[in-house]
Hints:
By secondary structure, the protein is mainly alpha-helical. It has six helices and two strands; from the N terminus they run αααββααα.
Amino acid sequence: MQDNNDKKINISQEKNKGMKGLRTYREDLKEASTKKGPPLKKKGKTKKTKEDDLKSKVPVVPSPPTQPIADISKKQVIGKTNYVTTEDVAEAGKMRVEKKDAEILAEKTKKEAEMREKEEMRKKEEEMKTEGEKLKEEVEKILVEKNELDKKLHELDEKERVIKQEKETIFNERSRVEEILQPTLEKERAVEEKIKGLEKEESTAKTTQEKHDAEQKRWAVEEERRAIEKEKWDKEKELEKIITDINEKELELTEINTQRNKINTKIVLLDKEKEKKELTQKLKGLSKTKDELETEWIKLNDRKKELEETLSPIMEKEKGVENTKHSIEEKEHSASSSIEQRELEQKRWEIEENRKNIEQKRWEIEENIKEISGKINTLKPRYQEALKEEEETQTKLNNINN
């Protein structure tokens, strides 16, 4: 900015130098007055005319320079002062056009990249949607199979309840038969004791007749014993059948428990498979969320860097304008005339106005940077939350797989 102001001032000075020696209206007026001759002097006080007052205020015009007017179409260097040539102006215009073309190309490339990114995101969303629908179908199949298994479990529970009731009935029947059998067994034991007594009489008989009598008695008791044993057999067969029925019921109950265990194991596996699929889908969703947050963060961060890069030259420009202003203010204090001071003050006004515009531009960029920084700060907790949830979900999935 400082260089541009210096260039403008130098060009103005050069033009003023080139204009030296040209005739002015006041000079023509002065020459016309001289040709007419000196004015008549009046006696007494001469009244001061407006023309005399005007002449007294007009500064002395220096004589024309002896050297010809400098050609400013060529670049000249006097000390450290650079003068802008037509070639410089053309080159600057060319550079502006090239810069504009480069900006248009960059904007076009940026839009194309954004369109490609949107298309990729759309495809990913479609894939996620397809995978989600597929997962939903798989989960529904698992739920249907689980419902069927639950029905089988219910049927087994009902069957078990019936078998237990039957088993209880059989146990009651066995108790009844055992109770009926008990007197028969007691009679059998009594007969056996009686037979033992008769056999003892046989062995101690002194005569043949005594022995025959004892043997006849034993025969009769043996007949009684046989009848009792037959009665016992009937009861025992009934009891054996009851015990067989009980064993069969026990086997049925064992089979029911085996089936139930198999079904429960399968249900557990189905639950794990369902949870596994849901956790896998959840991980994909969290990964997508993280990618979106990362993409948004990169965009915001890149935009922030662009603004910061834009801000840097503006601040340099602002610093240059401030230095120019300070320099002019110092010159104001050392101005040799009020005209020079007014010129410097007018320049300072222009510089201050330029400074204001630069500062307003800086404010706008700083506000944009602040806004973007705020958005970036809101992304951080969301990303951390997604990352934490992803780790927890992955841990659950690992536990299921193990």
